[in-house]
């Protein structure tokens, strides 16, 4: 398996890391598990931002996974290029989560834009 394909797994795990941060920061209790979505919607501050980072991670993951798979199937891009783009994407997602948690809105948006650009790059290198 290539590094880029492993990065799909890492991208899949990152939202769950965010939700653990949200639940711990929001003082999640077992009784909150009867309606965890309501609990998460009631959060504010740091835990709420962790929850929002989780949602955004779930939104971008299908595009990233599709881009990696298309790049592999097209066969026009060198494997090293695909792997580097995938690692850069994961790095951008980690920075995005950090920026979200730290409430650095403008920097977060810039990092998000870089991540979207990286997803598009998989298609461009596959032409």
From TrEMBL:
Coiled coil: none annotated. This is MAPEG family protein. The chain crosses the membrane at residues 80-102, 109-126. InterPro entries: MAPEG-like_dom_sf, Membr-assoc_MAPEG. Its main location: membrane. GO terms for cellular component: membrane. The lineage of its organism: Bacteria, Pseudomonadati, Pseudomonadota, Gammaproteobacteria, Pseudomonadales. The keyword Membrane applies. The keyword tRNA processing does not apply. It comes from Pseudomonas brassicacearum. It is found in: Membrane. Pfam families: MAPEG (PF01124). Keywords: Membrane, Transmembrane, Transmembrane helix.
């Amino acid at each position: 398996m290539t590094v880029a394909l492993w990065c799909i797994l890492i991208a899949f795990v990152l939202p769950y890391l965010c939700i653990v941060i949200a639940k711990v920061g929001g003082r999640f209790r077992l009784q909150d598990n009867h309606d965890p979505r309501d609990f998460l919607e009631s959060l504010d501050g740091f835990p709420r931002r962790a929850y929002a980072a989780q949602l955004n991670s779930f939104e971008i993951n299908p595009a990233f996974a599709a881009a990696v798979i298309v790049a592999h199937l097209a066969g026009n891009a060198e494997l090293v290029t695909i792997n580097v783009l995938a690692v850069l994407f994961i790095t951008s997602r980690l920075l995005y989560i950090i920026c979200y948690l730290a409430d650095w809105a403008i920097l977060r948006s810039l990092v998000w834009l870089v991540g979207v650009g990286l997803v598009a790059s998989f298609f461009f290198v596959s032409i």
